Amino acid sequence: MRPSRRVPLLRGAIAASFATFVALASHAWADGAIPGMLGIAVPWILSLMICTLLAGRRLSMIRLSASVLLSQALFHALFVLGSITPGGGFTPHVHGVGSLNFQGAPVLVPEDASMWIAHGFAAIVTIIALHRGERIVRMLAAVASDVAAWLRRTVLVSILLHPAIPRRVRWRVTSAPRPIDPLRAAFRRRGPPLRLS
Q1: CA–CA separation, 124 and 23 (whole Å)
Q2: Which residue ranges does UniProt annotate as crossing the membrane (predicted)?
Q3: 107: helix, coil or strand?
Q4: Each residue of 10-20: pLDDT tens digit?
């Protein structure tokens, strides 16, 4: 993979994953039900493709907002995948049709306002977090680069100013200690005893 494609791919993967997490959290907060694995995986994969296509080499609030809003639309439409109950109806979820009435026309259940508020809140939180988060990561990377450059300069200057000069090892022969007579060592000092203080 070319290095120029790594940044949009990384940006798209992070945006899709974070958007999935925030949408799932707000969805569970508003509805109380967590979708099945299929309802999480399919929107995440489609969101990954959309976010990667919309992610450019530079951070753009418009492209980021479009990718998050499209991801939210995917989540809203596809979180119901894999959440069908054995009775034939949908689980208690407020997306579109609540249940099918086989005796007449299908009964459409209007969507709850809390779901739209939750999706809107999730989109706003995701856009702000991704935009600010990337700026913070770039600032931290710049600070780390500056600190690394300062350390390289400091170490280089200290090495150049104070080079490690190998010292010559000087060999010397020391004489062996003379044997000490124990009696003579006890009376080494002549004169009156020292005062005890």
Answers
A1: 11
A2: 40-56, 68-93, 113-130
A3: strand
A4: 888 888 888 88
Q: Give tens-digit pLDDT for 134-177.
A: 888 889 999 999 999 998 888 877 777 776 667 777 777 777 77
CA 184 to chain CA centroid, Å, is 78
Domain ranges of the chain: 3-98+107-127
Q: pTM here?
A: 0.54
Helix (H) / strand (E) containing 99: strand 97-99
Q: Please, which contacts does 133-136 make with residues 24 or more away whose CB atoms are closer than 8 Å?
A: 134/11, 134/59, 135/59
Q: Residue 84 phi/psi, 5° resolution?
A: -80, 135
Instruction: State phi, psi for 108 to the nearest 5 degrees.
Output: -95, 125
CA distances to 31, 64, 87, 105, 123 from 116, rounded to whole Å, are: 11, 20, 27, 26, 10
